[in-house]
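look at this one:
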Amino acid sequence: MRCPDKDKKESVIMQTRISLFLTIVCTSLVLVFSIPLHAFGWNDLPSEQDISRVRKKLETLRAWELTKYLELNEETSARLFPAIRDADEQRLKIQAENRGLVRRMRESLEADSPLTEEINEYLDRLQQNRKEMARIEVEHMERVRSILSTEDTARYLLFLVRFQREVRERISKASQDRRKNRSESRERD
């Protein structure tokens, strides 16, 4: 039987480590993504390599936390994580394409004479990609439900909501801190 005080201490240590790791990852995201992207001026979009590096860190953290949260055994992990990876890879391809479409559409709009036909093609493709993302999500959840119990599937969804919220909050905080530091730096100059 484990000592409750020891369990509590280990839990606090684990939460501290997770918090520190999330802070590091989110700070990296802010640096990579130049949030708020010059107030959505989209001038300094991150490279695919930068996006990939940060994404891998987040995926590792998500896998580690999910394993702990769901108390996954080796057999279930061996089935679940490939399903997650497959869905992630499909989403990533679409997201990369969308970034290219948005970039080209922006360039089109900034041209002296934007071509309506060209812009419509970008909009149509972006809409198709949204439908494809929805299809991927439906298939992913079907796979997850075939691997996990009903209760664990619900826990999985709740975990994802919490994890994504925490990442967004940390990105927002890091972005605010970065803007504050920039402002203070300019005031000193």
In short: The mean pLDDT is 81. The first helix runs from residue 4 to 33. The chain has six helices and no strands. The helical segments are 4-33, 37-40, 48-70, 74-110, 116-147, 150-188.
